[in-house]
């Protein structure tokens, strides 16, 4: 029972993670999934989608007007992506650490971008950077019925 565990407060935090078109083309979908899954996070939504322009304009609205905006939308819209929602304690912050820095050259080895990327414009994965971004992005990419609530039977071995 969840309520028996001591350190599960906050374990329902969710983040939006996306394998970008380069990650899909390079066969890294399984690797991204594997890392989050084996860390102990719970996968609650997953789909492949070739994102329409309007969705990307909304997703990247904070970058509108920047010099990398048009190339960014062309890049992310160039093929299917794998969108997912992961749940667990501190998953937003820890997920960003698992991704590495925006610029793969500044990402530590052991991070996804640090292991598989070289340039910022092909940095393989996206992850929400705050609670408000996570909520906004999950609502943008998934309908409520596409997100599953399920009990992770290993959670008493993941949480104290
Ligand atoms: P983040 O994805 O690590 O949160 P943001 O600054 O929000 O980083 O930028 C969103 C995405 O835009 C980056 O992941 C990257 O794909 C792209 N991007 C950001 N800055 C540049 C740049 O200077 N050149 C090319 N692409 C960039």
Residue runs with pLDDT of under 50 for 5 or more positions:
none
Bound molecules: inosine-5'-diphosphate
> Mean pLDDT score, rounded?
96
CATH topology group: Alpha-Beta Plaits
CATH class: Alpha Beta
State the end-to-end distance. 12 Å
Going by CATH, the architecture would be: 2-Layer Sandwich
Q: What would you give as the CATH superfamily?
A: Nucleoside diphosphate kinase-like domain
The number of domains? 1
Structural category is alpha+beta
Helix content: 25-40%
Strand % is 15-25%
**Largest pleated sheet:** 4 strands, antiparallel
Shape: globular
Return the string of H and E elements: EHHEHHEHHEHH
Rounded Rg: 16 Å
Strand order of the largest sheet: 2-3-1-4
How large is the count of helical segments? Answer: 8
Number of strands: 4
Give a topology summary.
Blueprint: E1 14-19, H1 21-25, H2 29-39, E2 42-49, H3 53-59, H4 69-76, E3 81-87, H5 91-99, H6 112-116, E4 125-127, H7 131-141, H8 155-158
Antiparallel strand pairs: 1-3, 1-4, 2-3
The protein binds inosine-5'-diphosphate (IDP).
Task: Please describe what this structure looks like.
- The chain is an alpha+beta fold and 160 residues long.
- The chain has a single domain (2-158), classed as Alpha-Beta Plaits, CATH 3.30.70.
- The chain has helices at residues 21-25, 29-39, 53-59, 69-76, 91-99, 112-116, 131-141, 155-158; strands at 14-19, 42-49, 81-87, 125-127.
- Strands 2-3-1-4 form a 4-stranded antiparallel sheet.
- Inosine-5'-diphosphate (IDP) binds next to loops.
- Inosine-5'-diphosphate binds next to loops.
- It catalyses: a 2'-deoxyribonucleoside 5'-diphosphate + ATP = a 2'-deoxyribonucleoside 5'-triphosphate + ADP.
- ATP binds at residues 20, 68, 96, 102, 113, 123.
- One of its GO terms (molecular function) is ATP binding.
């Amino acid at each position: 029972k969840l309520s028996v565990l001591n350190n599960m407060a906050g374990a329902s935090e969710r983040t939006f993670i996306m394998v970008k078109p380069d990650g899909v083309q390079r066969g890294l979908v399984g690797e991204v999934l594997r890392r989050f899954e084996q860390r102990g996070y719970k996968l609650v939504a997953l789909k492949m989608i070739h994102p329409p322009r309007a969705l990307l304009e909304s997703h990247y609205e904070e970058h509108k007007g920047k010099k990398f905006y048009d190339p960014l939308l062309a890049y992310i819209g160039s093929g299917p992506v794998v969108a997912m929602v992961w749940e667990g304690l501190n998953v937003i912050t820890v997920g960003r650490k698992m991704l590495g820095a925006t610029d793969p050259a500044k990402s530590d080895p052991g991070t996804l971008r640090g292991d598989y990327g070289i340039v910022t414009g092909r940095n393989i994965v996206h992850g929400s950077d705050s609670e408000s971004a996570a909520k906004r992005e999950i609502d943008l990419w998934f309908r409520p019925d596409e997100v599953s609530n399920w009990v992770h039977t290993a959670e008493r071995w993941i949480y104290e």
